[in-house]
Amino acid sequence: MRRVIPITEQFQHFVEDLKGSFWGDLYTQTRQFWKQALELESTRLRDRYMHCQAYERNAQRNDYRNGFYERSFQTRLGDLRLRIARTRSKVFLPALVRLFQRRADEVMVLIREAFLRGLSTRQVGRVVASIGIGELSAQTVSRLTRSLDTMVHAFHHQRLQDEWAYLFLDGVSLRVRRFTARKRVQMLVAYGVRRNGTRQLLAFLRSSGESQAAWEGLLQDLQRRGLEGQNLRLIITDGCPGLAAAIHTIYPHVAHQRCWVHKMRNILERVRRRDYGAVKNDAQAIYLSDNRRGAEAAARTFCQHWKDLYPAIVEKLQQDLPELLAFYDFPPHLWRKLRTTNVIERCFVEVRRRTRPMVCFVNLASMERIIYAIFHRFNRQWTSHTLRQFTQAA
């Protein structure tokens, strides 16, 4: 009968140490081999370019040797520090180095995602160094993230299908460093929803404010890219006067809904503390009514009750009422989604969370990269997640 020899803990440690020693030596020797091979290849390329060996006189000489310079490369074998041959006008980097470089694909994605998740350029360099790739400077990280510029350009010029039924428009304010001081920059954003509940952030535009001209620029861009508005049923906004005027210019035949959250905020910030609760209840009764007729009756009650104490609020409510009640022309299960800009405000929460650690953008290009990256992530997530209320309507 064959006897089974028990494996002791000491023997297991011996085997593990042997494996570690073997593979560690092999790894070190492999790195050393490639280091020598790449440095020799660099020297060979220079000699071939010079048409002569070192210290050799030759009538065909077209340049002069200029020694070597050292440079580190992050590769799949770890950090390789190579002596690269050079002349007075040229350096000779072996083509094989690019095959070994690790920073090209998966590490590039890691750097970009870490940066877009809220880490500063310095913190990204430390994260990369912690996984054994070698520490990257803040300038290197910034240079690598510039690859997003082509994606930003493609996003701004992407063709749109004229299939959007609901358009939410709003703006978010961000700080950017300018030549003299920090300044506020407004980012105007368009969020589209199809009838079947699929959604997408369609566009963003940098501007100095929310004037009519600025919003017309965003809407004209949407129209130029294909959103002509033939299937557009409702545009929901925060109530900005310049935006309302721009809608009447670019999409004059589309209904306009003003956001009730913004309207309530405007009403309540102008009332006395003792009247706050009563005014709030009376105003909420308008948009919580079961139908348009009930909402109009609740609005008349509000105006009758508060016209003496707050005439300016009442006058403004009466003026805005048609655009505040536009959502009643749609199916009841859509009312909650259509009477506010909450869907786009949730995106702005992520924008503020991501940009808060940065305090202030270094330049306008970096701001657009971050906004694009956040919106692109949302659009990818939404490909498989529809808005349930709109799905029911479809």
Structure commentary:
The radius of gyration is 32 Å and the shape is elongated. The chain has 16 helices and 7 strands. It has helices at residues 9-50, 96-100, 106-116, 121-130, 138-145, 148-156, 212-224, 241-250, 260-268, 276-287, 292-306, 311-324, 335-338, 342-355, 364-382, 388-393, and strands at 65-75, 78-87, 166-177, 182-193, 199-207, 234-237, 255-258. Helix 10 packs antiparallel against helix 11 (292-306) and helix 14 crosses helix 15. The mean pLDDT is 81. The chain has a domain at 161-393. 51% of the residues lie in helices and 16% in strands. The strands form 2 sheets. A 5-stranded mixed sheet has the order 5-4-3-6-7, with helices on both faces. The chain has a two-stranded antiparallel ribbon with strand order 1-2. With 394 residues, it is α/β, with parallel strands linked by helices.
Largest sheet: 5 strands, mixed
What fraction of the residues are assigned to beta strands by DSSP?
15-25%
From the N-terminal CA to the C-terminal CA, the straight-line distance is 75 Å
Low-pLDDT ranges: none
Rg estimate, integer Å:
32 Å
The total count of helices amounts to 16
Structural class: alpha/beta
Strand order of the largest sheet: 5-4-3-6-7
The helix/strand order is HEEHHHHHEEEHEHEHHHHHHHH
Helix content: 40-55%
Topology, number of strands: 7
